[in-house]
């Protein structure tokens, strides 16, 4: 009974800062914020970063009308990508709040269950995990389909690449759609690598954690519904393809065994042969070899 009371006390006291990035998807962001209003877990504040959208007025109006959510809005003067946005938010959270315990990265096109944050914090505490993920389901036309599992614990190997589900008991990485992260982790391994801009930054972050002996876990009772790629679809398929291939090569360079790093050069030639008419694949290879990272700029 004493242990149960102690655990419940921690759940009530653990302070969480939720970081959400918006980029030209105001309606999705507002839906996400509305779902956060239903959380049973109340000890949280929200840092919302706008990545230089065309319009941010609806979100500012929503913030004024929903003071109980304790939202702080920040408007950036350029699009810094997912990595730049979350790093900005993390720095703000760590600078202004000395009493926080966790930072929860949540995609703006996600909806949460009323018990999601309670279960995330509970699992993080019980398993002493550096990063705790949720079970993420596909959201189609605002209908939550719990049979369509999109992600839980990510698998990864250098032959097949990364997959966001299939390793719930021993995950190799946790998707950035929903990551509950211990505050002190950033002091040890640093922030997200802004070279990635978007895609594979979550895999890189988790591989760095694993190298330093930290544990990842998934809360099987924490549910998130996700409207996949609503922000990144604005970029178009060709630019998304560019980020995927360039960043996979960057991930390989940073973490792969030496033999895999040598193979990467052969892989580049294979890509050119496979996609002879895709200038975006050529851009990806060119930029990788010329150390051009961050935002696509061609």
TrEMBL record:
Name the keywords, alphabetized: Glycosyltransferase, Membrane, Transferase, Transmembrane, Transmembrane helix
Provide the family line. Belongs to the glycosyltransferase 2 family.
Q: Which domain of life is it from?
A: Bacteria
| InterPro entries listed in its UniProt record | Glyco_trans_2-like, Nucleotide-diphossugar_trans
Q: Which residues cross the membrane?
A: 259-277
Note the Pfam families from the entry. Glycos_transf_2
- The chain positions of domain Glycosyltransferase 2-like read 18-137
Lipid biosynthesis is among the record's keywords: no
The identity of this protein, by name, is Glycosyl transferase family 2
MF (Gene Ontology): glycosyltransferase activity
